[in-house]
Amino acid sequence: MTDDRTKPEIDAPEGPAPDDLAVRDLIVGDGAEAKPGDTVTVHYVGVEYTSGEEFDSSWNRGESIQFPLRGLIQGWQDGIPGMKVGGRRELVIPPHLAYGPAGGHFLGGKTLIFIIDLLAVG
């Protein structure tokens, strides 16, 4: 299925960051559909919108990660449901749906881009 995929490259975006969650399917999967509250197994890479700097990637750790959607940032909770296993989706998440305003978390106040490969739904 997705075992033959490689880590996606994220090109630096142009223009201002969106004010709302932007969801774009890069590859539409044909497996089970993720629903709100599901536990998902994913591979992902995340970069900051303005700098293009990567801040996290499951690919770099060499293994996928599994977690319940309800424990994630709101942008993931809103952006993954409807995605099907085998798919690859880009989420552009503004601060109010990510880590909130600047201060607190090191990603606070930042718009984030994630590319997520959905491997399984539990």
Automatic annotation (TrEMBL):
| Highest taxon of the lineage | Bacteria
Region feature (Disordered): 1-21
Q: What does the record give under GO molecular function? A: peptidyl-prolyl cis-trans isomerase activity
- Limits of the PPIase FKBP-type domain: 37-122
* UniProt keyword Isomerase, yes or no: yes
Instruction: Identify the InterPro entries for this entry.
Output: PPIase_dom_sf, PPIase_FKBP_dom
State where composition is biased (Basic and acidic residues).
1-10
EC? 5.2.1.8
Stored Pfam families: FKBP_C
Is the Isomerase keyword given for this protein? yes
Instruction: Write out the entry's keywords from A to Z.
Output: Isomerase, Rotamase
Describe the reaction catalysed, as an equation.
[protein]-peptidylproline (omega=180) = [protein]-peptidylproline (omega=0)
Q: What class of enzyme is it?
A: isomerase
Which family, according to the similarity comment?
Answer: Belongs to the FKBP-type PPIase family.
PANTHER family documented for this protein? 39 KDA FK506-BINDING NUCLEAR PROTEIN, FKBP-TYPE PEPTIDYL-PROLYL CIS-TRANS ISOMERASE FKPA
Q: What is this protein called?
A: Peptidyl-prolyl cis-trans isomerase
- Lineage, broadest ranks: Bacteria, Bacillati, Actinomycetota, Actinomycetes, Micrococcales
